[in-house]
Amino acid sequence: MDIKLFFSACLTLLALINPIQKVFVVVSLQENYTRPELRRIVDKASVTAIGVLLLFLLMGEAILGYVFNLKIYAFQITCGVVLFYNGFVGLQKGAFLTLDKNTRIEELITVPIAIPMIAGPATITAVVTMPAVYGRWMTIGALLLALAINWVIMRNADRIGRFLERQNMMMPLIRITALIVAAIGLQMILNGIETFIVTVHP
């Protein structure tokens, strides 16, 4: 196995999963939930995200093409719009997730923590398309490592958050991360348009 290629795939997926964004999400939940409850949310959401992403990695083209009759460029453009909107909201509000105090844990685990915050549109598109470049097994390994790193960071989000707050870095990093998320969304839209043009006019 090409180690350099493997870590390139892992870093690509890690950038799309965006663990830093998840730190801000978990920190924003601290007022409503205890630490054990937050860890339960992180653990279950991570397991759910692994299942969703492995399903799309192994059967993504079949799911999109045969079940929903979708082209990959349509999925890229739509997911790019969603991601761009999430980044724009983060820029405006300075937060990626706002909740009602009565929101139950079960309502958070699948949506929005697992989907789309961990298994987001950019990550789903990546796992569908990356096996053609990196190979299936290398992509699976890179995905599992990226998700493990994300899980460790989310599990320690409270400590990371306290450090960032002491350094007065929390809000600037939220805005910077939101800008990067919006930029990734825009790039996905442009990639989808490019794929569409190449498909229609080869």
Average pLDDT for all residues: 85
The largest pleated sheet is described as: none
Q: Could you state the order of secondary-structure elements as H and E? A: HHHHHHHHHH
Instruction: Specify Rg, calculated over alpha carbons.
Output: 17 Å
If helices are DSSP runs of H or I spanning 4 or more residues, what is the number of helices? 10
Structural class: mainly alpha
Percent helix among the residues? over 70%
Number of strands: 0
The fraction of residues in strands falls at under 5%
Low-confidence stretches: none
The end-to-end span amounts to 33 Å
Membrane topology: Multi-pass membrane protein
Subcellular location: Cell membrane
Family: Belongs to the UPF0056 (MarC) family.
Main location: membrane
Overall description:
The chain starts with a helix and ends with a helix. It is mainly α and 202 residues long. The protein has helices spanning 3-17, 19-29, 35-67, 72-93, 105-118, 121-129, 131-134, 136-155, 157-166, 170-200. It is built from ten helices and no strands.
Compose a concise summary of this entry:
The chain has 202 residues and is an all-alpha fold.
Tags for this model:
202 residues, transmembrane helix, membrane, UPF0056 membrane protein, transmembrane, Multi_antbiot-R_MarC
Helix-strand layout with pairing:
Elements: H1 3-17, H2 19-29, H3 35-67, H4 72-93, H5 105-118, H6 121-129, H7 131-134, H8 136-155, H9 157-166, H10 170-200
